[in-house]
Amino acid sequence: MPYPVSVTERQSEILTRGEAALRQRATVLWERRSGSTPTIVLGGFVPDSTEQVFLLRGYLLRQGSVYYLNYARGGFSLALICAQLDDLVQELNLTHSQRPVIFGVSFGAGLVLEWLRRSRAARRSPAISGIILVSPVACAADIVVPGETKASTLIGRALKPYLDSGATVGADVIDRSRAIFAKIFEAGAQNREAIGALLTPGELRLLRDRVLRAVQEIEPVGACERVNALRAMPALSPWINADQSPLSTAPVLVLYAEKESAVIAAGSPTRVAFESALSSHFPHGQLQIVSSDAAGTAVQHASLIFHYFQFLPLVTAFYRSLKLRKLPLAA
Predict the structure, then answer these.
(1) Pairwise CA distance, residues 63 & 36, whole Å
(2) Is the pTM of the predicted complex or chain greater than 0.70?
(3) Inter-axis angle of helices 107-121 and 220-232, to 10 degrees?
(4) What pLDDT is stored for residue 196 in this prediction?
(5) In the CATH hierarchy, which fold is given to the domain comprising 9-323?
(6) Residue 248, pLDDT score
(7) Contacts of 25 by beta carbon, 8 Å cutoff, 6+ apart
């Protein structure tokens, strides 16, 4: 159900200054629970956040309410999504005396990093319990290697025409990218053994319909603006300057799948930064590779649905570790 947002100060500032339009504002949905650790979910390009954690939501709801930021079909603004995240975190802090976990997946993980970067630049330190970043895509070079004439990843081939155009793209490019995103979902759904253990036939049909509807309903301007946001996000450096503080001192869990090659390019700046100097950005961060057993299919990029059993233990352990901290909310 829609969340009745009451704190809108930062997004109102962005809208008043003309930095974004209402058509670009994300919808905030929620499922209310009584737990003390709420979660805010930001999904990838597709599917929506509500479907991104379709199976994990049962566990997340046992920790507290879950808030989903679903991006507008007809537009996207980097400044506005960061402002909405500012407002939502502040509202949970002030109204509920809660520190949320920020859960970003793929492009959504990149948005979380950009939000933290902007918070640091504004000398703000968001009051959060922790951060989970799944298969983070935080700049264009994570998808397409700069200067390459033909993208080496499947998603790179879908997004390179957008990145090359700098503005809008033709209907053929839109159709091709929709087909690629749909193909990735359908490929995961072919894992019959895993699907049978995770979803009933009715649940699979419902999930498939929602995901494919999201893929088809994203308007051309919305698709272009999402890619433009990715283009605008600077690559994460392996090191921080002497005058910079870490992005966050909260506990952070970074998860990469064992097989990211369909999406994340070789030499991804974000992955290089995290694998070489995670503690520079997140002093209390840990990086894990999510893998299947020898008999299972390889875990793919952000495959929270089709490899739920592989992701769940790591997510569970992270939330359990947060209960040991129980820091008081800052005044």
Answers:
(1) 6
(2) yes
(3) 50
(4) 66
(5) Rossmann fold (3.40.50)
(6) 97
(7) 11, 72, 77, 80, 84
